[in-house]
């Protein structure tokens, strides 16, 4: 694994836990962790349970005991690391967004295609697909329970930089993060909405904004410019005809991690909020109107995706479980010689949506088709 | 009162009830009801409690015992009736949207201005301003409890025409209704959002859609074309800098009358859903983060707008009460020689927002400023 | 009508509104209002819309233009007024609790029986039966949708006397009110639970408590003793075998009018909270567990009890509507020569439950059967 | 660890994870797992991550590499195993309920006292104390934010045996489980309510019921008698004067793991439902009534108990984390030479409450004091 900050911690927990709950043909061994600072990476490896450390990710990628590389670094290094790992014949799990630019993402998708021909697998880490409630939502859509989809309403609301005194961390600098709320959390709702509806965005009209344009530097004194968006809003149309509304922001005071999705179809509707991640709200429009209403399904039943591997009904899963599910699915795909999803191509498509959003926002919100 | 369908019924209940709960300087007398069909208007007057009937609204407007005309007809007749009533020196309450076009609305606002100079009052019926929770929301905003407003999220979701077999009623025909979801319910969220935030929309980028383009005619056989929008979505910016997202639709299966508003500011946030109309959710961002959260305020306390006139705390008000509050406020303004709000000028401004939405939607979603 | 305080105000609104929304064979005329203080009753009659006043309820009862007497006084005068009215051949609507003692309630039920033989009708005002959600809940139970009922969980939580400085109003004095939370709000949940489940309590085990034993007198200076319960809790069994838990309190800080009912059966469950009075939560246990969950039914559909008389789906009703429904049902029964429900006999049975609760609480919580 | 069923699986995850998230002075080593069936315990150890296996728990207790014994068996073997382990100088974590009888629990508490004198620690596994929301609830109570506590309302609702065809598993047999819903889930709400309020139950009045008295045997054919309660309800008083209502049932259709607690005090109230385990609802009764309401606190902030060790705000924890917190706290206590809580004495006190419930239920619900 490369990187050991927030994503590294949760990925470690996933690798540590997957085999205890899922019947896996391959048992993960946490071979080595890479980071530039020797002392810090050593401490992290001890705490997170990695057997060895490397201070250069290139060495990690080429270790004999490494068969899969998990890329948990900021977006500006994804392309280089992932492509090198794929070329070295290592399977790759790469955190989202796949890259900071469409060009990088294209190169990665091409590398993934070449590697695939040699049996080397790749996956991009849109972990929210593995929330049981969202995986079950997709099942309901694919079973036709929503009928013709008319509306998609997606929001990802956070509030961690509402305070103008919050420092200029790497996520607020374009050269590291690519974009702001758009790439960080907007990418998640684009993927989640497309995944649940089994459809793709055809075009968008967008606005973006940076509310606080200067912030204190994280170390030392002085202030620096915020070079990414604080919020991005767009409306759009899916290929299948649904209208869509998306909003990603870090300025929604009181909303901590509100990834919300509502889908309305001719036969039913779904609603979800990650702040209550074990619940899916489903309205069945096909029956008697007097009995109809949004029902709160606790997605913890044996018949729900992933849930049967864990605890009895009503015993909640948490954020980290989505990564454990991701790890389990990836290992099963690798063992089966199958392609795990979402692929790098899926990650590239999301990147193209994000690029269309930025293009529209820069161009008087004009309608901008998503290529592909 | 002119008209006795849905709006006429609820306005009647308001006129009947206002004086029993509010201390009014003027006591309303329900003098006469107007409608074209003599038998039906007579039956309606008997049931709704009106003392006399007229089959021509012009006669009603000029009756000696009529001092205030309440216009409850479809939008295509608002301008003619309201202007005639104002010119006849009658105070006017006109249902929203003020008119079907900006030109009509401008003529009405001008007539209202002329009448005002003669002490004749006018008001447009955006009843949702008189939901206690929304009136209280505005108080919180004006008291600075939300700080700098960053985001407005407004939706008005209904589902009464999801079924393609639903007939082509007058609300689905442009010549009667002006527009579809946009003017009917979109107008309400535009007004409500501007009212609560005490700010105005500066510009928009929009899409609209008619999902079901032909429907059975309401009487007899055959089918006709739907000439209004089924749904309208737009993003925008307020003059004060807030980003906004609006959605009005009649295709949100399971949402019956979900007028939802969420406002995020630098010091706090508000959320409201008319389906739970006695509740306002308020997040105070100024205090200790460990204790913070959206609190469910039951807006039924004596200290809340309008609520003290009714029942003890926790005893819900309903939809019709918003009209009773409107009637009481109008009577108080008339007695005081003051201008009731929202004025026809306010109604015109909302009309301009709707027109900008339609213009943007017709023009590749391009950014379209709201004049004025 | 006798009395014009809280109950008088809401009953007046019911009489004023019923005929405008329900097709009634009899149209109520608000003939006369009675109260001891001439000035105050005159002002109340003007405001509430009563045509005449009486300062002695005996005169009201015998007026020629009075055919129905609505008793809205405190419980200590219910028996005397209601019996006199019945004997004078007036139909009677009597607020709950029917009386302050079982003996009084028995006398009233006997008087009602005698009057009934002469075609004179009587009804006790358990208005919560006419919440559409609770009436619909009963329909679901009677249709077998819950199967064998196992559990009833009923609470009525208020908080208006949490503050020890709140004065010693008449509701806190046994000689006026009969009991405290028990008779005032406990009576409502006993009736509501029995009504929804279509079953009766067989026995109870109870505790009661007066947390604040002395309070300031409402007028002048000094303090007086609180002679009623602040809270009453009991567990019990229904005749059909369900276990039950009841709690009535005025000390639940933050709960304003939380009449809550949850019923669990072998095939389904129901949950209700009057603080969200337009919602009924229904869990259908008969289907696929993966799709099951409590659904939030907005009880505002044309197919729901009472709702069709009012507004389109999703347009909330409020507290007062339960009284309007009660008035409409009573007038329909009178016109039809039928007995309205709940009868005085039903009111007596509730009184017996309350008496069993007090007996158990006074007797080491020992199991106490409910007679009858 | 002894036992590897449900509790064994979740305890294993706790031991595996604790050191990766908490800074622990001792790092747990998962030395050995014990179970009677050699093949099954070997497979479980491999899957759950235990280094060795024993088929006799006595051998496990005396292994040199075992310093702490985690007892995850049914209640009938708790006393024997825990006492043996303590006498062998091993620290002990014992699942709840501490024992099947008060006599066993007394013996265990005595053994724990003797062991403590030798520096050997013991803890009973009431894991719900380590739900961050409940730990934070206790902090609020202890900080005086609720004032004088008036009401405690506790329910633990499940539905896994609603179907009469559900088999006669060990939890439905008195000789293995001690009691039914009472000991299994009733024990949890007794502990949780006492923990949050920092007070103890003084006495109770109870009813219990077995709705389905015969069930199919789990293996083979035939039916057997259910010898435990399906549901237990009781009312009671806390030593500090609060009134309480408790209900534990496995027959609440649609409630999966609804451990609910509501506490009302003179200055505030709290509400919790484990089905939404990351939320605590807090009503502050001390401020302006117009602004007051139950606020939904997402208990995922750095300032909340345990939460800072995990993810950013709004990223949910799940059921298993309560066990990880328990493991971390136990290890910290052992390292510090301190007594972990809840102690075996605390477990014994809960057992006495359960015994009082059964005694009251067998004795006409008569008031039964809780000794001690």
UniProtKB/TrEMBL annotation, chains A, B, C, D:
Cited InterPro entries: Gfo/Idh/MocA-like_OxRdtase_N, Gfo/Idh/MocA_oxidrdct_glycsds, GFO_IDH_MocA-like_dom, NAD(P)-bd_dom_sf
All residue ranges annotated as the Gfo/Idh/MocA-like oxidoreductase N-terminal domain in the record: 1-116
Superkingdom to which the source organism belongs: Bacteria
Domain GFO/IDH/MocA-like oxidoreductase: 136-270
Keyword Lipoprotein: no
Xref: Pfam families: GFO_IDH_MocA, GFO_IDH_MocA_C3
GO molecular function: nucleotide binding; oxidoreductase activity
Coiled-coil regions, chain positions: none
UniProtKB keywords: Oxidoreductase
Listed name of the protein: Gfo/Idh/MocA family oxidoreductase
């Amino acid at each position: 694994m490369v990187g050991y900050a927030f994503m590294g911690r949760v990925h470690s927990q996933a690798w540590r836990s997957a085999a205890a709950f899922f019947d896996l043909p391959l048992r993960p061994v946490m071979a080595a962790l890479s980071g530039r600072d020797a002392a810090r990476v050593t401490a992290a490896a001890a705490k997170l349970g990695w057997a060895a450390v490397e201070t250069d990710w290139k060495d990690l990628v080429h270790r004999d005991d490494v068969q899969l590389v998990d890329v948990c670094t900021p977006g500006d290094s994804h392309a280089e690391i992932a492509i090198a790992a794929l070329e070295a014949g290592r399977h790759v799990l790469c955190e989202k967004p796949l890259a900071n630019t469409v060009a990088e993402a294209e190169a990665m998708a091409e590398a993934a295609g070449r590697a695939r021909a040699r049996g080397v697998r790749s996956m991009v880490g849109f972990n929210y697909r593995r929330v049981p409630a969202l995986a079950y939502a997709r099942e309901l859509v694919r079973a036709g329970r929503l009928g013709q989809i008319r509306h998609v309403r997606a929001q990802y609301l956070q509030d961690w930089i509402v305070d103008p005194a919050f420092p200029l961390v790497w996520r607020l600098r374009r050269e590291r993060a690519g974009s702001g709320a758009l790439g960080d959390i907007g990418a998640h709702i684009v993927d989640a909405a497309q995944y649940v509806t089994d459809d793709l965005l055809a075009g968008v009209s967008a606005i973006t904004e940076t509310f606080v344009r200067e912030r204190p530097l994280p170390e030392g004194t002085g202030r620096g410019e915020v070079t990414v968006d604080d919020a991005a809003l767009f409306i759009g149309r899916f290929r299948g005809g649904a209208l869509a509304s998306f909003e990603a922001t870090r300025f929604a005071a009181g909303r901590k991690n509100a990834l919300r999705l509502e889908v309305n179809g001719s036969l039913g509707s779904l609603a979800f909020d990650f702040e209550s991640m074990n619940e899916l709200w489903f309205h069945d429009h096909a029956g008697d109107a007097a009995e109809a209403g949004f029902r709160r399904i606790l997605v913890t039943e044996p018949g729900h995706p992933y849930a049967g591997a864990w605890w009895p009904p009503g015993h909640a899963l948490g954020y980290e479980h989505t990564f454990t599910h991701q790890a389990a699915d990836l290992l099963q795909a690798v063992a089966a010689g199958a392609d795990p999803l979402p692929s790098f191509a899926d990650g590239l498509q999301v990147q193209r949506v994000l690029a269309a959003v930025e293009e529209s926002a820069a161009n008087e919100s004009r309608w901008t088709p998503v290529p592909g």
